[in-house]
Amino acid sequence: METMVRKLQQKYKKAREDMLKWDELQSRLLSLFKSATSIINRLEVLAEAKNYGVLRSISGIREALLGKQMETLEMIFRSMRETMKEFHGIVLSLEKIARDAWQLVKGGSAQTSKQMKVQIGLWPNLAYCLDGLRSIYEMHQSEYILKLSVVSSLTWKCSTTDAAAFGQLLVDQPNIPKDEVQAIYDIIFAEEIWTNACLCSNCEGKTDCERLETISQACTKLSEDNE
Fold first, then answer.
1. SS3 for 47?
2. pLDDT tens, residue by residue, 165-218
3. Which of 94, 112, 122, 207 gives 191 a disulfide partner, CB atoms 3.0 to 4.6 angstroms apart?
4. Backbone torsions φ then ψ of 154, nearest 5 degrees
5. For the chain, domain boundaries
6. CA atoms in the 13 A half-sphere facing the CB of 134
7. What pLDDT, in 10s, does the model give residues 72-95?
């Protein structure tokens, strides 16, 4: 069992790499979104002839400025769509990791439902390992669908209020609760975390002690749930 769990831990490390790439794309998307909303807000001002003052005497200035802003906005929209394709690539990768993990466990020696839930010490059981990867994939899939909807809904006609609401949704990433993801990793790597802590002369402050206690309680609850 320990050998199989270690193989599954490698899947989690690969998933972590994908999530780091996701965070990089998140930063890029937020930057692009901010630029897009700035232009959208500017278009409303540029559309009003009264806002040009003495510049109104310059023939075609309003059309020229609006045209340039629309051109820039379309370039940003294109970059956002390309970024969404990269998000989708990560979702597909996480799905493959979860699927490969399932095949790794099911394709090896036959495991009964009871064996899948056997937990030894701080090692997570096989069922939890598979469920955790599946949950991480589903979180990111749901968030991708939300992001795609937001990006598709953002147009030059959006009001300032709508744009702000869309932006907050992107920032919040409601479908990927960080605490839940971290809790999964804490249980998957509980034995490693505990061992590393024991190698230290003492815990580095109260926070480390509290984390170890939380992990221990989570592992105990997982074991009790499987009885």
1. coil
2. 999 999 999 999 999 999 999 999 998 887 776 655 454 544 455 666 666 666
3. 122
4. -80, 115
5. 2-109+124-173
6. 10
7. 999 999 999 999 999 999 999 999
